[in-house]
Amino acid sequence: MNPGASSAGGSSNPSPNPPPSSPPSAHSHGDVPAIEKIKLARDLLLKETGKVIVGQQEVIDALLIAMFSRGHCLLVGVPGLAKTLMISTLAKVLNLRFNRIQFTPDLMPSDITGTDIIQEDPQTGRRVFHFVRGPIFANLLLADEINRTPPKTQAALLQAMQEYQVTTGGGGGKTYQLEPPFFVLATQNPVEQEGTYPLPEAQLDRFMFMVKVGYPKAEEERAIVKATTTEVPQELQPVLTAADILAVQKMVRKVPVSDHIVDYAVNLVRATRPQEKDTPEFINNWLTWGAGPRAAQYLVLGAKARAVTRGRLNVSADDIRHMAKPVLRHRLITNFSADAEGVDADAIVDKLLASVKEPGPEAYK
């Protein structure tokens, strides 16, 4: 991942390139044209975001895969790597309703979800509860520095991320549906941990990916400096609509996956659990807890979305391997031995991929 950023810019002008039409069923004869349109849309999205964001192609690609899989993302990187700018730029080219929440220690759950206020009806004189919607009612929600707010406020996102709805306590406790598509993209600073509240494992598991954002290459950093020290506006053209994204999500779910690909994903996840049968020895030595079934689901969904965005209807083991780190790195709980040896989750995933082999034809005889 080679991130960087340039100046932001936006435009509401319609795209000269028509967005892909709603893809048909993955079992119809229209699959190939639909897949080609999705691949074209991905290329256009990367091109448009490239007007503002220098580098970070792998990061943006991971965000798109998560969105097309109906998943949420946690971006981890030091300040100044354009995490916030990247997400707001993505919202513009996807033509989505975008809200940003700056998480602070004094933020309350109602500041996110909304609150009930008492209003007096001018005709009857009766006082009734009226719900004022919070910033969570958007298509794309940026939870900036999510680890800076207490667990009670962090938990306010859990129901929305999992169930796509919000329940309030006032007025008898009503439930409000969030309009799809709905994505939570959260950022986190891995360096400055004083005064922060680490996300609990239950909330980390709600994020499909943990994406690491690193420093840019030298040539990219030069491009960033040149672009951000001039007054050259960049106009962004919308590429997809909310309806298009929902259609792609349905297409991804309908893509067939062979049994041996499913078994490969399941075997990778099961191999992360210490003290289980056939668990590699290094897992027993370095991990306290491994990944749960949700990890295997996200491996397969991510592999499907990756295949579709590259113009393929067939999901390969290579797609699974590309999804392994962003899906597993925040689901592996290392122990003291791993920390003492300087072994992190990414190194464990690399070793896991080398030790867990793809099931061969003999496994299905």
Layout of strands and helices, then pairs:
Elements: H1 31-49, H2 57-68, E1 73-76, H3 83-93, E2 98-102, H4 109-113, E3 114-120, E4 127-133, E5 140-144, H5 151-154, H6 156-163, E6 165-167, E7 175-177, E8 183-188, H7 201-204, E9 209-212, H8 218-228, H9 242-254, H10 259-270, H11 281-286, E10 287-289, H12 293-309, H13 317-328, E11 333-334, H14 336-341, H15 345-355
Parallel strand pairs: 1-8, 1-9, 2-5, 5-8
Antiparallel strand pairs: 3-4, 6-7, 10-11
Helix pairs in contact: 9-12, 10-12, 12-13, 13-15
Tell me what you see in this structure.
- Helices cover 41% and strands 13% of the residues.
- It has 365 residues and is of the alpha/beta class.
- It has two domains: 1-11 and 21-248, P-loop containing nucleotide triphosphate hydrolases (Rossmann fold), CATH 3.40.50.300; 255-365, Magnesium chelatase subunit I, C-Terminal domain (Helicase, Ruva Protein, domain 3), CATH 1.10.8.
- α10 (259-270) crosses α12.
- Mean pLDDT is 83; it is low at 1-29.
Strand-pairing-aware structural class? alpha/beta
**Low-confidence spans: pLDDT under 50, at least 5 residues?**
1-29
CATH arch. level architecture of the largest domain:
3-Layer(aba) Sandwich
Global shape:
globular
Number of domains: 2
N-C termini distance: 41 Å
Assign the CATH class of the largest domain.
Alpha Beta
Strand content: 5-15%
Order of helices and strands: HHEHEHEEEHHEEEHEHHHHEHHEHH
Number of strands: 11
CATH topology of the largest domain: Rossmann fold
CA gyration radius, whole angstroms: 22 Å
Q: Output mean pLDDT.
A: 83
Sheet bearing the most strands, described?
5 strands, parallel
Number of helices: 15
- Level of helix content? 40-55%
Supply the CATH superfamily name of the largest domain.
P-loop containing nucleotide triphosphate hydrolases
State the strand order across the main sheet: 2-5-8-1-9
